Amino acid sequence: MIGRQRTILAIAALIIALLGVAGLVLVTQNRQARCAAVPFLTPELLPNAALLPGEQPGMPAGWSAAAPGVELQGSEGKGFDYNNDGRALQLIGIGNFVQTPPIAVRPGASYCFASRALTDSAKRSATRLRLSFDWRDGQNQPLGKNMTDWQHVVRWQPEAQPDDWSAIVGAFDAPAGAATLLVQIQPASDDRVYLDAMHVLRTSDDRPPTTNAQPLPQSVAGGRSSVVIQPWPNGYRAATSFSFDWETAMGGLIHSRSVDDPNASVDWQLRAMRMRQGVTTTLDLFRPYGIRATYYANGYNFLLGNTERRQFMNNPTFAWADHTKSKKWPNDAWTSMPWFANDPYGTVDSDPIWYFGDLIPVLLKARQDIQSHTFSHLDGGLATQQEWLADLQTWRTVASERGVPPARSLAFPWSSSAGMSYADWDALLAAGITSITRTKPGQPQYALASPADPHCRPIPGHERILACPDFYLHSQAVGAYRGGHIARADRRVGPGGELCCPTARLRRALGRAAGGDRRLAASYQPGKNQEPRTKNHAARCRTELCCCQR
Ligand SMILES: [Zn+2]
Question: pTM for this one?
Answer without folding.
Answer: 0.81
